Amino acid sequence: MRILSSRVVCLARVLMTASLLIAGGSPILAGDAGTLPVHMAQQTEPVTLYAYNHYPLVSLDPQFAADSPSIGAIENLFLGLTDFHPVTNNAVPELASSWTVSEDGTLWTFTLRGDVPWVRWDPATQQADILRMVTADDVAYGIQRLCDPRLEAFYAGTASRLISGCGALANMAKDVVTDADYDRVRVCALDDTTLEIKLNFAAGYFLSMSTMWIYRPVPREIIEEYGEEWTNVGTIVTNGPFVLDERVDGARRVFLRNPYLPDDLRGPGNVERVVVAEIGDHFQALALYKDNQLDSTGVPTAELAALQADPAYADQLVPYYDLLVEYFGFTHDKPPFDNVHARRAFAAIVDRQRFIDEEVFLPYVAPMIHFTPPGVFGAPPIDEVGVGFDPDYALEQLALAGYPDCQGFPPITLLVIGDDPAHGEFLAARAEEVLGCPADLFHITGMDLYSVVEAIDPALPPEDRPEMWILVWGPDYPDANNWVGDVLSCEMNPPTQRPCTEIDDLITQAGAESDSVIRADLYYQIEERFFGPEGEHPIIPLIMSGGYIMRKPWLSWPLNDGLFGGAHYDWRTIDQAAQLAARGR
Q1: Is residue 429 within 8 Å of residue 438, measured between CB atoms?
Q2: Do 504 and 490 meet the contact criterion of CB atoms below 8 Å apart?
Q3: Secondary structure (H, E, C), 189-231
Q4: Given this model, what pLDDT does residue 12 score?
C-alpha cells in the first residue's frame, strides 16, 4: 500500500469499518440477478449495511487510487485477476480462472473468465445496463495506463520495477507520450480471455501482487470518452459485486448490489446496499452506535475501559491486529541524519513497550523493532531482529556521530499527523532523558496526512524537507517485499532518500528467488542489516497497531477480511429482522 498504500491513510483504519446511518436515504430494493433489464424499485428496505468512514474518497480510478477509503471502494466496484480470500487471505482466482508461469518465472499467462460484464448503473432511473464483457485487453490496458507518466499514478513505481517495459514508459516525458507508447509495456492480450504479463525478473511475490487494485481492468472506451470524469456517478462503468449509486463528498456514498455479477463470484453475505457516511468525530460515531443507528464502530481509546465494564456492550467488543506499522522516518540527505550513527542513536532511545503503556493504552498493540510484521511471509520473529531500546548503545553511537551528550546537535523538525503531538513529545522526552538533548531540540508540527506526504516529497530540495516525520505503512500484499522492498528500497525513490547499498542487492535477490526457504532467509538478513547493531536504521519502526471495534449482534463477517486491499461488502451478513427491530422499524 510505497509510502501510501493503503496505506499511509490507514492511521484511521482502526475506525474505518464502522457504520453510520444517514437520514433521508430512499429505500431501494436490489433487483433480481436473473432479470433483464433490472429496476430497483422503491418498495421494502433492502438488507443494508450502514457504514462510516473518517476520510473522503480521493479517486475511484483503480490505477490512480492510493488511499484506503478509495481502495476499499474499488475492492467492491472492480474485480481483479485474483483476490485475497476474506478468511484465509490467500490469493484465489477472480477474473482469472487459472494461470501458468514460465520455467524462468518471468512470463505469467492468465486465463480469464468470459462471463463477467461491464455494468453502468443509472441512479436517476435505478437501471443497470450491460455494456459488454470484460476482456484480457481491459486488464492489459489498465496495467499499461498505470505506467503512463501523464496519469501520475502513485503506484507506478511499484509496477515500473517489476513489469517489463513499464519503466521505459513511466520515464518518458509527459509531453511526448502517446497511447501508441503503451506497446512498450510487455502486457499482451493474446485473445479475449488470455493475458500475458512479462516481468523483469522472477518475482516470487507476483501472485500476491496480482490482487492489487492497480492491476484491475478498466474500460478503455469509457475513459477515452469521459477523461477524468469517467468515475463520476452515473458515468462510471464497473464489474464488481456492487455498483455506485450515490457519492456526495463530505456527506456519504451509497453502493448497491450488482445484479449481473456471476453467482459464483459473489460472497456468502446477504448485504444488498451499503451506505457509507463521512464523519470525522469518532465519539459521535460511538454515540450513534449506542443509539442503534450504527452497525459497527471504532472504539475511542478514552471509552474502552467503560465499554469493557458495561455488560450491555462488553460482548460486542472485538479485538484485532491490522498489520499497520507506525514509524518515525529520517531524511538521509541532510544533517544530522545523513550520519548513520545519529540514526542508530535515535532509534535506540525508543522504549516501545513504555510508549505503548504510556501513550496507547490498548493491549492489542505490539512493539516493532524491525519493519515487517508477524503473519507476513518473510517476517522475522517479532522480538528477534533489531536493536530495540538500548541506552548505552545510543550514547555510544551519538558520540561516534560527533555529538557526545548531544552537544551541538542541530534542531529537529518533526512532522506528526493530526493535532496530537504525543508521539513526537515521547521521542523528544526520550532524547532528553537518554541522550541529554535539550528539551527544545524538537520542533513538532502537526499536519493533515496529505500535507505530511507533500512535505517529505523527495522531489523537494533537502533544505525544504523536515529532518523527521511520522507515517504508517499498511500491507498491499502479504510478503516482506511489500515492506522492505516497496518502502525502503533505494530504487523506489523513498522520501528518506537513502542511498543505494548492498542491502538493495539483497532486496532484488530476495524478490527474484523462487525457493521460499531461501527467500525467508534473505529477508531475515535484510531486516538485520537495516535494524541490527551495524544496521543502516533508515527508519525507526515503532508499533504494529491494533485495537477494538464494536459490532452489533446482527452483523457478522470474517475478522481477517480487509487486511490486504479492502473489505468485501459481499461477505457481510445482517440479521435484518433484528437490525430493524433495534432501530424501531
Answers
A1: no
A2: yes
A3: EEECCEEEEEECCCCCCHHHHCCCHHHCCCCHHHHHHHHHHHH
A4: 31
Q: How far is CA 158 from CA 123, 486, 493, in A?
A: 36, 7, 11
pLDDT at 360: 67
Cell of 116: 463477467
Q: Are strands 96-101 and 91-93 parallel, antiparallel or unpaired?
A: unpaired
Q: What is the CB-side half-sphere exposure of residue 414 using CA atoms within 13 A?
A: 26
From the number of C-beta atoms within 10 Å of its C-beta (0-12, 13-18, 19+), residue 472 rates as buried
Decide: 427 and 442 in contact? Cβ < 8 Å.
yes
Q: What angle do CA 326, 160, 144 make, to 5 degrees?
A: 120
**Three-state helix/strand/coil letters over 265-330:** HCCCCCCCEEEEEECCCHHHHHHHHHCCCCCEEECCHHHHHHHHHCCCCHHHEEEEEEEEEEEEEE
pLDDT value at residue 362: 67
Which residues are 191's β-sheet partners? 194
Ranges of the chain with pLDDT below 50: 1-43
Question: How many other C-beta atoms are found inside a 10 Å radius of the C-beta of residue 509?
Answer: 15
**Residue 267: CA atoms inside 13 Å, Cβ hemisphere, count?**
27
CA 487-490-495 angle, to 5 degrees, is 60
The neighbour count for residue 521, using CB atoms within 10 Å, is: 14
| Whole-Å CA distances, 115 to 39, 134, 189, 381 | 21, 8, 17, 44
Domains of the chain as residue ranges with CATH: 5-288+552-582 (3.40.190.10), 321-545 (3.10.105.10)
Closest to 307 in 3D by CA, of 327, 342, 283: 283
Query: CB within 8 A of 169, min separation 6: which ones?
Result: 144, 147, 148, 149, 177, 181, 182, 184, 185
C-alpha cell at 277: 457516511
Query: Do the beta carbons of residue 246 and residue 233 sit within 8 Å?
Result: yes
- Torsion angle of alpha carbons 216, 219, 220, 224, nearest 10°? -120
Q: Which three cell numbers stand for residue 13?
A: 483504519
